[in-house]
Each structure stands twice: as structure tokens, then as C-alpha cells.
Amino acid sequence: MVEQRAPHLVVFTGAGISAESGIQTFRASDGLWADHPIEDVATPEAWRRDPERVLRFYDQRRDQVRRARPNAAHKALASLEKQGFAVSIITQNIDDLHERAGSRRVLHLHGEILRARSTVDARMHYPLLRGGIRLGDLCDKGSQLRPDVVWFGEGVPHFSEACETVARADLLLVVGTSLAVMPAAALLEYAPLDAPCVLVDPEARALAPPGTTALEQPAGKGVPALVRHWRREGRLWLPETLLGEA
Questions:
Q1: Keywords assigned by UniProt (predicted)?
Q2: From the centroid of its chain, how far is CA 137?
């Protein structure tokens, strides 16, 4: 007897899902870039020019992440995994809200704010269970520690792994992203031709690429609604009545 494979949901999440937990986004009018230009805090050049300013900025972000709590969308995805679905999450977010909700397979494309890494060996990571990073905090090779995040102008080390994951999807769920940041936005191109793709976002109809189904709802409403259908039916599908809502 051939063992039936669990349906594989690949979820690609962006800042919109974390915003509902109170984490500021970069692109909103009151977001992080309003007071902190990219070139001052999120580039290798900024780090070389003023590392103390960069560290202060990420300390503030880290405090914000620690205060935040997983929302209904994070929890719904974790519940689907607990029911036996294969759920792989690829996120542009550097927070740990997916993990705190209970998701076990989470790939962080842009790094993790609650880790530090060496400036001479990117393989050397250190958890930040409390506090932040200070000048003079060194890795085991004697080099200054930096935030374990991908800055503008740096490569995305896990992109190939993310592409391989998307290529194994039965359904691709995109949540809370403008699909404007490359190379992450190109992930959709690696999905199987027969794998449906749905975008959940308040502006989904304007953002959805051709061939993508738009669910114009915030993550905390749209994702749990989809998950309820999938858990009830035991399969991944796109309920037309739900997707017809604005």
C-alpha cells in the first residue's frame, strides 16, 4: 500500500503579518524608515561608518520583538501543522513570532534579530536570550559581533534553499508582503505550475501577480479563515465563497 503524502503548504510571509502583532514595518508612513534612513542603519557602509548607531537601532527593534506576541495568523499556521499538514514557512521577517506560535519549519531569508553573528565568519551565530550587542562584544575568533540580519547590498544566503522548498509546494500562500523586495519576490516563479497561489493582504488585488488569487483581508482574518477550511476538509483548496469576499 502506497503511503499518502501529507499536503504541503508553503507559506511566504512579509512585514504585514508581524505588523498585526505591533511590529513596525519599514514602508508604512509611520514605519521605521521615517526616522532611520536605510543608508544610516541597514547597509554594510553604515556599519563601517557608525557601528554604534547601527547597534542602537537593532537594540530598539529587538526590544519591540520581545514585547510582541504571535497573532491569529501565526497561530492558525501552527495549528495546521499540528493537524498533520506539512507546513514550510519562508519569512522575510527577522522576528521569532512564527516559532513562538508553534511552527517548527521556519526559514528566515533576512536573518534573525534575536541572534548575533561574527563579522569575520558568518557561520558563527550566538543567541541573544536577553539584552543586545555592544561594541567590544566579540565572537570566538576575536571579532566584533553584529546583528544576524541581511542588510541592503548583502546576499541572501538561504535563497537557494527557499527556492527548493517552494518547488515542492502543493499550494503557495503569500501573506503580508508587497512582493517588492528582491530576490525574495522572485520565489513565486519556482512554484510548480499546478500549485495554486493565494495572496492574503489588505491590498491583495493591487499586489497579486498574474495567476495569483487575491484575498483582500488582513492576515489575522484571512489566514485563519483559510486554515479553518483546510483543517475541516483535510486538504488544500481555495474556497470560492471566501475568496469572493473583499
A1: Acyltransferase, Cytoplasm, NAD, Transferase
A2: 28
CB 188 within 8 A of CB 179: yes
- Does 26 belong to an annotated binding site? yes
Is residue 31 marked as binding? yes
Q: How far apart are CA 124 and CA 131, in angstroms?
A: 19
Tens digit of each residue's pLDDT (9 = 90 or more) over 12-65: 999 999 999 999 766 555 555 556 677 788 999 999 999 999 999 999 999 999
* Predicted pLDDT at 2: 40
Provide mean pLDDT across the span 7-15: 94
What's the CA gap between 246 and 239, in Å, rounded? Answer: 14
Peptide bond into 51 cis (omega under 30): no
228 labelled as ligand-binding?
no
Catalytic residue among 36, 74, 110, 125: 110
Which residue, among 153, 157, 148, has the nearest Cα to 43 in the 3D structure? 153
Which residues are paired to 88 by β-bridges?
10
C-beta of residue 165 within 8 angstroms of C-beta of residue 138: no
pTM for the structure as a whole:
0.90
Active site residue 158: no
Q: How many residues in the chain?
A: 246
pLDDT tens digit sequence for 156-190: 999 999 999 999 999 999 999 877 777 777 898 99
Q: In this structure, how many other beta carbons lie within 10 angstroms of the beta carbon of residue 9?
A: 23
Residue 106: alpha-carbon gap to chain centroid: 8
Please tell me whether 140 is known to bind a ligand. Answer: no
71 is in an annotated binding site: no
